[in-house]
Design brief:
The protein has one domain. 75% of the residues lie in helices and 0% in strands. This is Prolamin-like domain-containing protein.
Length: 115
């Protein structure tokens, strides 16, 4: 239960930080809310944390999270990861993060096709 609470707290912090930085988003402001409403809400908090942990850390993904990710859609996945990787403290490794993003997408598409 503590791990779940910790994950929810982490997700909440990520959401608050992203919301605070939304004006800096590279997409037109009206599109930002649309992307947020249509993309982020399609995925479970656990899967969102796992995806962020995979791209920006060393976590692993489950088949369930892969299905969530593919259900979210490639445009949503690309835009949200690009948005996070554009942060000043992450931008130095942006190329690496974008490659991990694309590798994760390819992996998840293959998982969903075999299931």
């Amino acid at each position: 239960m503590t791990s779940y609470t910790s994950q929810l707290t982490t997700l909440f912090v990520v959401v608050v930080l992203v919301c605070a930085l939304v004006p800096a988003f590279s997409v037109v402001e009206g599109e930002t809310k649309t992307l947020w409403d249509t993309c982020f809400l399609k995925i479970t908090p656990k899967s969102a944390l796992d995806i962020i942990g995979i791209v920006f850390g060393n976590r692993t993904i489950t088949d369930v999270c892969c299905h969530d990710l593919v259900g979210e859609g490639k445009v949503c996945h690309d835009v949200l990861i690009k948005y996070i990787s554009d942060r000043p403290h992450l931008v130095a490794n942006e190329t690496q993060y974008l490659k991990k993003r694309d590798d994760l997408w390819t992996h998840c598409v293959s998982v969903t096709k075999t299931a």
